[in-house]
Amino acid sequence: MNQSLIALLALVLAAPAVAQDEPAAEEAPAAEEAPAEEAPADEAPAADAPVTEEEVAGEEAAADEGSSEPWALYFGADYVNTRLSVSAPPSAPAAEFDSSMIRVRAGTAILDGIGLELHYGVDQADEAAGEVTTDAYYGAFIVPTAKVIEVLELAFPVGYARSEFDNSGEALGSIAYGIDVEVPIKGLWSALPDVRLTGGWMVYYQKSDARVYGANFGLRYDFAL
């Protein structure tokens, strides 16, 4: 009996110590898992960082630059020898007259391979040689183009032209058309400016009462805005 009482008393005294040791063993995993749960919390502020006005403006500017396209323009100047052929009196019997002008051209590409071109003429006639003056010349043309080789292009202006000669006060206006051969010298050497040598033939007026036609040669300069 004494031994049984002693053993029972020892179990009663040992029970509190066992109860305190078991929670300490369970708290260890919780302490080890805490750093792993805190890692996503440290990354959250970076994902939620506000976008500044400077960043928005920079993105919009980059988008505008990527979407905008340069505006292709060109200017040209030609020396034109024209022939005025008149079929009706009072010009008979001398029915043909020569004239000349500097033709200024300005154009832009409206579609791939098609341009819009405006003309203006300045008289260069030598009246001492019997030429008639070109008092006025205006024109507006649609110009399809085709590249034959790298250094050779063809242009086909089609539109409307209006001319006045020899202080007659009569305007000759009609459908006009022609062909131009253009040689881009930039194709020969890329370091050169985009200048073209041009030459061609135009019919400026063609009706039953008269015809105006002639050859031209000059330069054209292309650039972009």
Describe the 3D structure.
With 225 residues, the protein is an alpha+beta fold. The chain is 27% helix and 49% strand. It has 2 helices and 9 strands. Strands 1, 2, 3, 4, 5, 6, 7, 8 and 9 form a 9-stranded antiparallel sheet that branches. The chain is elongated, with a radius of gyration of 45 Å. The N and C termini lie far apart (114 Å).
Keywords:
9-stranded antiparallel sheet, alpha+beta, single chain, 225 residues, 9 strands
Q: What is the percent of helical residues?
A: 25-40%
Number of strands: 9
* Total of DSSP H or I helical runs spanning 4+ residues: 2
Shape annotation: elongated
Briefly characterize the structure.
The protein has 225 residues and is an alpha+beta fold.
Lay out the secondary structure:
Layout: H1 2-47, H2 53-67, E1 72-86, E2 96-111, E3 114-123, E4 134-149, E5 152-155, E6 158-165, E7 171-184, E8 195-206, E9 210-224
Antiparallel strand pairs: 1-2, 1-9, 2-3, 3-4, 4-5, 4-6, 5-7, 6-7, 7-8, 8-9
